[in-house]
Amino acid sequence: MDFRLSDEHEALRETVREFAREQVAPVIGELYEKHAFPYDLIRQMGKMGLFGLPFPEDQGGMGGDYFALCLALEELARIDSSVAITLEAAVSLGAMPIHRFGTPAQRAEWLPRLLSGEALAGFGLTEPGTGSDAGGTQTRAVLDEAAGEWVINGSKAFITNSGTDITALVTVTAVTGTNPDGSKELSTIIVPSGTPGFHVLPAYSKVGWNCSDTHELAFDDCRVPAANLLGARGRGFAQFLQILDEGRIAIAALSVGLAQGCVDESLKYAHERQAFGQPIGNFQAVQFMIADMEMRAHTARLAYYDAAARMLAGQDFKRQAAIAKLYASEAAVDNARYATQVHGGYGFMNESAVGRFWRDAKILEIGEGTSEIQRMIIARSLGV
Amino acid sequence: MNIVVLVKQVPDSGAERNLTSDDNTVDRGSANNVINEMDEYAIEEALKIKEAHGGEVTILTMGPDRATESIRKALSMGPDAAVHVVDDALAGSCAVATSKVLAAALGTLNADLILCGAESTDGRVQVLPHMLAERLGVAALTGARKLTVDGASLTAERQTEEGYEVVSAATPAVVSVWDTINEPRYPSFKGIMAAKKKPVRTLSLADLGVSADEVGFAGATSAVVEHSKRPPRSAGTKITDEGTAGTQLVEYLVTEKFV
Ligand SMILES: Cc1cc2nc3c(=O)[nH]c(=O)nc-3n(C[C@H](O)[C@H](O)[C@H](O)COP(=O)(O)OP(=O)(O)OC[C@H]3O[C@@H](n4cnc5c(N)ncnc54)[C@H](O)[C@@H]3O)c2cc1C
């Protein structure tokens, strides 16, 4: 029974922490205000090998594991969530499906650039008309057998990393037929950026995650080679469920980072800020807010460590991942609220880190499965 | 090119640092110990030279057992191997003694180029590179902000207060660098994993043929006899501009000997 990190995981955690403090922290405030995608930081993260963390070396990866990715996400999000979600979506949603379900040719074509961070991939599941209910997918792909091409029509909503200058492709889920039981046959198809008929609409104006890239996508008789089918036809549903189960651990790690960042900033401010002739950290009301924040961050961390450990041991981790994601995202939202409170009026200013944390926290209870969906998964796993 | 980089473990300069009360040396036990910042630039420079010209990069550290953490971290950036000089008798060594020990260790390493930081953030005496070059009988190109390697010839831009000087020497030579020379890389996870398997050779004073009374407290050429905490910052002088603020400012700078 041991939750201490191995020397290598600890060294990675420290390295990413140094990077986040030295390189991300000084520039993120301005990028965030400008809603600018952090190209230079992404390039540096690519050089550090962060985009290749959980992939084997023979695929161009770093030979680490999914837990290593989670540690990196936590340390990045401790400083900024936009940068962290860019990495999370690029690795967990972008490259991982190709690594896991791709043919040798598809892997050879895409993974080298994705794992080095030179290129990003998006994952298009959500649509304007359906999110949690992925079975409600409307986007259709019809195989034109004569031409050997899929013809895609429909649209996708809120797709991360789909419209940057370095986005290479988006994998989309689409209805490709009807199953014998009458349900929709869902498949996943790789659509390279720049394919005629694939339109990236202007970036959304978001409440937070300002430096993360999010677009609505439209497919208008968009044709891609039949060979761009990712994994077996009709396996789309099962594939993204698997990807999302793991992704929940990553989002939990990212949430823990934000929750811990709230503790870091609040501690600093509690020592510095004077009121009634003393540091506000002398007031028990402030001490207790910080104590509760630390308790939530710590507990949430243990929850994601446990889910990751089960996953790496090849055990069932679905419930534990849902618990970690649910608890950690709620901890992040609570901590952002209290950290802002500790900072008083300054916390409501965009220039304060906790102001950013506050804006960035809420999406964690929504993306990659809402809190309600997590509760449904937990309840279902308990047999109710 | 066979490059040796000197790496020292120091207390983190970002955190509070203290001297111990019993022997007036840096309290390394309680501090968070890190690689001396300037040494990371020396490592990066060595790796860049290796990438361009081939060769091998070896880390050389003198320090207590605990310094292995810093050696592993240095190796995770990419060097091939490390040598760790460790001996209880080394505690309290002054710069002169340190240069003696490092010179003895370098004698076993056959280096074409010895790279190091221009200063360490704990001692800040900036004399070690010169002493080392003197002991080895090789050139010292110190305080480099740029280094060019052309075969066996080294050319450095030496940073000075007014600008820079261009100096050159043939290998072997000692080159010390400032943080203006490059941007050190962050270790990758692959580098971290690989560092575990890289050879680290430990050498004692006996291995180097240096006797214990030439080093440590016993052989120190200087000793700190007393220390006290820096007094808290006193309130500043406020000058309100009533037409003569410029003159007052200059007068203040002159009386405080800033100009
Ligand atoms: C910034 C951002 C980035 C995103 N990136 C991506 C991406 O890269 N790829 C991608 O595919 N998607 C992405 N999404 C979409 C995200 O995953 C969805 O928004 C999320 O899954 C919720 O879907 P929805 O918005 O359609 O909400 P809905 O499903 O419409 O849910 C609305 C509300 O109803 C509740 N609800 C729904 N069904 C039930 C039920 N059965 N029982 C109880 N309550 C229920 C929900 O919990 C929620 O409270 C992103 C979203 C955002 C905001």
TrEMBL record, chain A:
Gene Ontology MF term list: acyl-CoA dehydrogenase activity; flavin adenine dinucleotide binding
Matching SUPFAM superfamilies, A to Z? Acyl-CoA dehydrogenase C-terminal domain-like, Acyl-CoA dehydrogenase NM domain-like
Specify the Acyl-CoA oxidase/dehydrogenase middle domain's residue ranges: 123-222
Q: What keywords are assigned to this protein? A: FAD, Flavoprotein, Oxidoreductase
Alphabetized Gene3D superfamilies for the sequence: Acyl-CoA dehydrogenase/oxidase, N-terminal domain (1.10.540.10), Butyryl-CoA Dehydrogenase, subunit A, domain 2 (2.40.110.10), Butyryl-CoA Dehydrogenase, subunit A, domain 3 (1.20.140.10)
Domain (Acyl-CoA dehydrogenase/oxidase C-terminal): give its ranges: 234-382
Domain Acyl-CoA dehydrogenase/oxidase N-terminal, by residue range, is 6-118
User: Which PROSITE patterns has this protein been placed in?
Assistant: ACYL_COA_DH_2
Looking at the record's lineage, which domain of life comes first? Bacteria
| Pfam hit, one | Acyl-CoA_dh_1
| Cofactor(s) named in the record | FAD
- Give the similarity note: Belongs to the acyl-CoA dehydrogenase family.
Q: Identify this protein by name.
A: Acyl-CoA dehydrogenase
Automatic annotation (TrEMBL), chain B:
Q: Which organism is it from?
A: Spirilliplanes yamanashiensis
Database matches in SMART domains: ETF (SM00893)
Question: Does the keyword field hold Transport?
Answer: yes
Function (record text): The electron transfer flavoprotein serves as a specific electron acceptor for other dehydrogenases. It transfers the electrons to the main respiratory chain via ETF-ubiquinone oxidoreductase (ETF dehydrogenase).
This protein is called Electron transfer flavoprotein subunit beta
Instruction: Tell me the domain of life.
Output: Bacteria
UniProt-listed PROSITE patterns: ETF_BETA
Q: What family does the Swiss-Prot or TrEMBL record give for this protein?
A: Belongs to the ETF beta-subunit/FixA family.
Q: How does it assemble?
A: Heterodimer of an alpha and a beta subunit.
Instruction: Kindly list the GO molecular function terms attached to this UniProt entry.
Output: electron transfer activity
Q: Any signal peptide, and if so, which residues?
A: none
Mention any one GO cellular component term assigned to this protein in its UniProt record. cytosol
Q: Identify which cofactors the protein needs according to its UniProt entry.
A: AMP; FAD
Q: Does NAD appear among the keywords? A: no
Gene3D superfamilies per the UniProt record, alphabetical: HUPs
Keywords for this protein: Electron transport, Transport
In what residue span(s) does the Electron transfer flavoprotein alpha/beta-subunit N-terminal domain sit? 23-212
Pfam families per the UniProt record, alphabetical: ETF
